[in-house]
Amino acid sequence: MDIYLKYFLIGLAIAMPVGAITVEMTKQGLKNGFIHGWAVGLGGMTIDVALILAMVFGFASVLALPFVQIPLWIAGAGFLAYLGYDSIKNADKDITPADERTNKSFWSTYRNGLLVAVSPGNLIFWVSVFGAVLTDSYSAGNKGSFAIAASGVLSGILIHDIGLLTIVSITRKVMSRKMIQIVSIIAGILLLGFALYFVYEFVIALLPYIQ
User: CA geometry: angle at 154 spanning 151 and 157, to 5°?
Assistant: First the structure.
């Protein structure tokens, strides 16, 4: 129980800072409601679960290799730049009033969550946080601790997502269409900012190999 609580709090803490996933969740929640905002979060958690399974099967060391991480910086930048551009370009589209049912596909917003979550920052978090836990999990008959820690982190992220989207859903009811458009544009600018940061990290990571 202590392990679960510890990593539940870690998951909650890691989800709280405003990142690309939070920005996309908030935007989709405002434009299309709770379910679509949550679809983004579920897309992100799908990548998280995949990374946990990868580490269970011994791929953590592969994910930590520079020649694996470096291309992911530029790939992540591309995904975020695409989502940012789309958010600004279509700021006045796909807005569903709170009292109407949206026609937007659940899977399209889920896909956005997948694209945002495929980033080196996310990979590095899972490898670094769970690297030590994984080592301890398979020693001294303590094989269940990794699963408990993983479920704790995922529960923390899930509770954060539900709490955030509950607030967004309530706020959405009092926001005008114009206000939601402005939020969508701001979200797009933030996503482009994250994309530029990823490009910067790509260049920094690449410099030792080209000098």
Answer: 150
Q: What is the largest CA-CA distance in the chain?
A: 59
Q: If you average pLDDT over residues 179-198, what whole number do you get?
A: 83
Give the CA angle between residues 13, 44, 181 to the nearest 5°. 90
Q: Is 5 helix (H, G, I), strand (E, B) or coil?
A: helix
Instruction: Provide the sign of the torsion angle of the four alpha carbons 50, 52, 53, 58, taken in this order.
Output: positive
127 — phi, psi (to 5°)?
-65, -45
Q: How many CA atoms lie within 13 A of 192 on its CB side?
A: 12
- DSSP string over 14-78: HHSS--HHHHHHHHHHHHH-HHHHHHHHHHHHHHHHHHHHHHHTT-HHHHTSHHHHHHHHHHHHH
Asked if residue 41 lies in contact with residue 161, where contact means CB atoms within 8 angstroms, the answer is yes
Tens digits of residue pLDDT in 30-68: 888 888 888 988 988 888 888 778 777 777 666 666 776
